[in-house]
Amino acid sequence: MGKDLKIELDDDAYTKLLKMANETGLSLQRMCKHILEEFTYQGKVYSGVWPEGPGKRVIIDFPKYSSRVLKIHENEL
After folding, report:
1. CA–CA gap between residue 28 and residue 36 (Å, rounded)
2. From CA 60, how far away is CA 57, in angstroms rounded?
3. Are strands 44-49 and 56-61 parallel, antiparallel or unpaired?
4. Structure pTM?
5. What is the distance between the alpha carbons of residues 26 and 22, in angstroms, rounded to a whole number?
């Protein structure tokens, strides 16, 4: 059983993700689930001190190579 996650996106990111989901025939939630899960296999997050802060610098390093092929049953779309 998975865990629920509530996230807030800015309008532009939401619109772009919704368009991608519609183009692939997935629900927005299902597509975001796969993006986040796939990121955990190949992606990295770096953080460090932000001298101009206060705060932190965060760098998101997305996968550079092809992702796994996901097979999704129709009832899971």
Report:
1. 12
2. 10
3. antiparallel
4. 0.72
5. 6
- State the average pLDDT over residues 32-59: 88
Say how far apart CA 24 and CA 41 lie, in whole Å: 22
- DSSP line for the chain: ----------HHHHHHHHHHHHHHT--HHHHHHHHHHHHHHH-EEEEEE-TTSSSEEEEEE---SPPPPP---GGG-
User: In this structure, are residues 47 and 61 in contact, taking their beta carbons and an 8 Å threshold?
Assistant: no
Query: What is the domain partition of the chain in residue ranges?
Result: 11-64
Contacts of 41 (CB under 8 A, 6+ apart): 63, 67, 68
